[in-house]
């Protein structure tokens, strides 16, 4: 049998050590993800680390360092596709980026373990776990700091819902109110919301938006007889 001819005990034990290290370290990373009920939990993280280690170890056994380098490049690309699968866009929000980055880190742990760099694999795993745990309080603290929107470039949109027959008049009034408040338009679009209803979206780009003044403009628009709804929203561009 080919297995009997090619089997070598010491290289096999080396593979056992590499895969075991990848399994344990991937499990430690995945346990934190599973506890927080993330899309990629314990099993996914372990399999990513284990798979990366197995491929790199196989390349090391067959072609040495040169082969391992080529396989690592493919592992990085493959994990990129896997990570894209856990990223979801919900309106203006994007979810899953941290989970995708964690999978990437798990693959790095596995690649280090497969290349017989167990200490380096443990170090990477430690930093990945610390990044997902110790940095969380700092992130929460930063998020609680009030945002100075005047210091940022933000995109503002004024949205007005009106009757189709009043579209031209309401659009002219919207432009007039915004220009009177010295908020020049970047773009204005119309979206049909039904047979008799349209939505006017006026986009502003400014670093000097006064929220109270914009509220006043929207309030005046909302009082017009032909307007059923008026509001504004903003999103940070930088």
UniProtKB/TrEMBL annotation:
Query: Which Pfam families does this one have?
Result: MgtC, MgtC_SapB_C
Q: Function of this protein?
A: Virulence factor required for growth in low Mg(2+) medium and for intramacrophage survival. May be involved in regulating membrane potential by activating Na(+)/K(+)-ATPase.
* Subcellular location per the Swiss-Prot or TrEMBL entry: Cell inner membrane; Cell membrane
GO CC terms in record: plasma membrane
| Sequence ranges assigned to domain MgtC-like C-terminal in this UniProt record | 156-232
Q: Does the keyword Membrane apply?
A: yes
Question: What is the originating organism of this protein?
Answer: Bosea spartocytisi
Q: Where is the MgtC/SapB/SrpB/YhiD N-terminal domain?
A: 19-139
Which keywords are on file for this protein? Cell inner membrane, Cell membrane, Membrane, Transmembrane, Transmembrane helix
Protein name (database record): Protein MgtC
From which lineage does this chain's organism come? Bacteria, Pseudomonadati, Pseudomonadota, Alphaproteobacteria, Hyphomicrobiales
Q: How does it sit in the membrane?
A: Multi-pass membrane protein
Q: Which family does it belong to?
A: Belongs to the MgtC/SapB family.
């Amino acid at each position: 049998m080919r297995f009997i001819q090619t089997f070598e005990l010491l290289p096999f034990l080396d593979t056992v050590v590499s895969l075991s290290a990848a399994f344990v370290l991937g499990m430690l990373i995945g346990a934190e993800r599973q506890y927080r009920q993330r899309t990629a939990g314990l099993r996914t993280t372990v399999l990513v680390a284990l798979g990366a280690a197995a491929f790199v170890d196989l390349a090391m056994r067959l072609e040495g360092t040169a082969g391992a380098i080529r396989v690592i490049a493919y592992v990085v690309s493959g994990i990129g596709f896997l990570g894209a699968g856990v990223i979801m866009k919900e309106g203006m929000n994007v979810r899953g980026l941290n989970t995708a980055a964690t999978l990437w880190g798990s693959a790095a742990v596995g690649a280090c373990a497969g290349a017989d760099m167990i200490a380096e694999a443990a170090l990477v795993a430690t930093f990945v776990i610390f990044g997902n745990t110790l940095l969380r309080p700092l992130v929460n603290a930063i998020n609680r700091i009030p945002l100075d929107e005047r210091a940022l470039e933000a995109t503002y949109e004024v949205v007005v819902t009106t009757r189709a027959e009043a579209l031209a008049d309401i659009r002219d009034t919207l432009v007039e109110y915004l220009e009177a408040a010295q908020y020049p338009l970047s773009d204005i679009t119309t979206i049909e919301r039904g047979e008799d209803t349209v939505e006017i979206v006026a986009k502003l780009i400014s670093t000097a938006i006064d929220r109270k003044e914009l509220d006043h403009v929207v309030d005046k628009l909302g009082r017009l007889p032909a307007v059923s709804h008026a509001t504004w929203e903003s999103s940070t561009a930088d």
